[in-house]
Structure formats: C-alpha cells, structure tokens
Amino acid sequence: MAKFNEKYCLSAFEKLLKADSTTGQYEEVQQVLIGLLDEMHIPYHTTHKGGVIADLGGEGNALVVTAHLDDIGLMVRHINANGTLNVCPVGGLYPFYCMTENVRVHTRDGKVFTGCICRSPNSVHVTEEELRVVPADYRTNVCVVLDEDVHSAADTRALGIETGDMIALEPRFTLANGYIKSRFIDDKACAAVLLAAMKEIKEKGIKLNRRVYAYFAMYEEIGHGTAWLPEGVKDILAIDIAPTGPDQNSDEKKVSVFCKDSRYPYHWAMTNELRETAINAKVDFVMDIFTPHYGTDADVSVAAGYDIRHAAIGPGTSNSHGYERTHMDGLKNTYLLLLAYMTL
Q1: What residues form DSSP beta bridges with 213?
Q2: From the candidates 28, 39, 59, 220, which is the catalytic residue?
Q3: In degrees rounded to 5, what are phi and psi of residue 170?
Q4: Cys-Cys with 76: which of 37, 128, 165, 222 at CB 3.0–4.6 Å?
Q5: Residue 46: which CATH number?
Q6: Around Cβ 21, how many Cβ atoms within 10 Å?
Q7: 281 in the same domain as 194
C-alpha cells in the first residue's frame, strides 16, 4: 500500500489557501498551482478560462480526475451611504455562515483592503430585541465594514473600491489532533490530495492503468468548471468533499464513494469499480448520497453532453460552505482510493 505524504499534502493545502480565489478570480491560485506542478516536472496546459490540466501519462481510455480551486465568497453590490459595502454572494455562501468573518476586498486595479462582515446594526448591547432576531440578509442588514477611515460612499470610492470588486474570506486554517479546520477544505484540501497522489506517481515512477489527466477547475462553485474536456476522455472522477449530516454515512475519517447527488445518480459501473477498488485496497470507505443541495464538476461534464462515465469520491467534511472540518484520515483514505483506482 502506498504511503500518504501527509506533510506534503498539508503544505500544498496551505499554499493554495493563501491564494484568494473567489470564483472568477483565478490568477493568483493558478500561479501557485503551476509552481507546484513545475516543482514535480509534470507537464500541463491552461484552459482559456483559467483551468489547469496536467498530463500524468499512461495509455488508452483517458480518465480525468478533477478537483476545483475556486472558493465561495462575496462581491461588492453597491457602496452604502456610510461607506460600508453592500454585498452579494458568489457561490453558495449564506449570511449565517460568514457573519463576523474577516475579509480581503480585491479591487480591479489590484489593490487589497481588509475588513469584516457585520450585521447592521452591529452591536448587541445597543440593538432592540426585535432587530436581533431578524435573520441575516445580504440585501438589507449585512455589510462589509472596511478597516479604513471612511464615513461616506465618496470616501470609499476614493480608495478605489467600486461595484463588482471581489471579496475573499479569511480561511483560518488550524490543525489539532488530526482534525483540520478551515474554510475552503471544499475543495483545496481535495486538490492537495490530488497533488500528493501526482507527486507519488511521478517520484516513484508508478505505472498508470490508463491515460490520466488532472484537471484543476476554477468555476465549480457556480456550475461550469469542467463544461469542456480534453479530446478522448472516457471517464471523469471528481474529488470533492462528502458533507456529513444526520442522514449521511459520511465520516470525517473516511472516504465516501458518491452514489447520487441532487443532480444525478453517478454511473453505476464506475461507482462499482471504485467500491471494489476500496474493498480490495482495504481503504476505510462508505457509500453515500448527497441531496438536496449538492453537485460536482463530474455532473457538469455529463450535462455538457460528453459521452462519458462519471463518479465522485471525497473525505467526510462537516460544516460545508462554512468553517469546515475534516480529518487527516479522511484525506489519507481519499488518497489511497484515488491512487489505487488509477494504478491497480
């Protein structure tokens, strides 16, 4: 059994986390990824809209393994009269999962400003009870307060901030007793697992059982990350988080093989291949279904009309689209299943 390079996986994860990459703003994280691929001497090319496709070699019946590098976040909707920012979500970021988070505002001319997501009014001690129980809503009572001396819309605009600027949340990565807590485990931790598998294949000269591409997509959170695939692809395997919950089998220490999500059932035969591989490789796994608000980039390729099989696996992860948590064992089991499927 291959050994999971935990140190490299965590290092890659942290490097990817440090690059703000709210969907659509891919340039910085793309350069970080390219640097990691260059270190491994793995050939790649970029897609016109920003994705990165690495060629791992092998022959016949090409498989795409995909993990996405875009994050959910916010965008400036308009500038309020008091200089705060009215915002709208980019991807599935709900107000109750980001209140009081620190942020970075990226302007279109390259400036970066810090701030915080706040309720309006924002202080419990001076807020009437009936206002405190009103749900948080981006349109009416949530704003970004800048760490700048601004008191009017004109003050904020003078900084260079305007409608359409991107707002990235602070990831706040921590590791304790094997548990990883961070925003954007979805999906940068899975991308790091894929990179760790690529490193193992490259350094050990492991023979692949087919042609394999690693596709790092940049638009999964808004639904079109892998709407285009390289020529000759027969199968696509998404590596994405497996949300935990009361009705879920998913476990933070295990890898889930996805049976179905809110869009489609995954391909029966390919899913069975993954299940059989997990059993034979003695990987700690579960089968699970993810509804009603879940889909992966593997679905996108099927919806785009490609004649392919599609499947998905990933580590059990709690608090999806919030301050997420998983365990190193979940990443390890995802890694072991991925590597076994590509090489057995």
Answers
A1: 55, 64
A2: 220
A3: -65, 125
A4: 165
A5: 3.40.630.10
A6: 27
A7: yes
